[in-house]
Amino acid sequence: QLGAYFGHSVCSVDINKDSLDDLLVSAPLFNDVTTGYDQGRVFVFINDPKNTMTSYRPQVLNGSNANGARFGMSVAVVGDIDKNGYDDICVGAP
Q1: Mean pLDDT in each 10-residue stretch from start to end of the chain (94 residues)?
Q2: Which family does it belong to (predicted)?
Q3: Conformational region of residue 62, where left means phi above 0, alpha means psi within -120 to 50, and beta covers everything else
Q4: Domain ranges of the chain
Q5: What is the distance between the alpha carbons of residues 49 and 7, in angstroms, rounded to a whole number?
Q6: 93: buried, middle or exposed (CB in 10 Å: 19+, 13-18, 0-12)?
């Protein structure tokens, strides 16, 4: 979406424990035109060596969908906080 600031924050982490880093890309000014403005989104690109980027659709993380939430203003890997064997991420929404 034009003006969504896609790529404002980017981080890599092995989300699915396949030894390949996956990519999280934020778009904090993403707008859902039916509900408001600047809700933000984070797009999750799972690294699959058999898949080409031309046919890939990322998973989408939505925040609260509140106007001005700017979900995805920052994205960071914070380690395995809950000790379940997977690295956790934090997403900022100021």
Answers
A1: 91 91 95 86 88 74 91 96 94 93
A2: Belongs to the integrin alpha chain family.
A3: beta
A4: 9-92
A5: 22
A6: middle
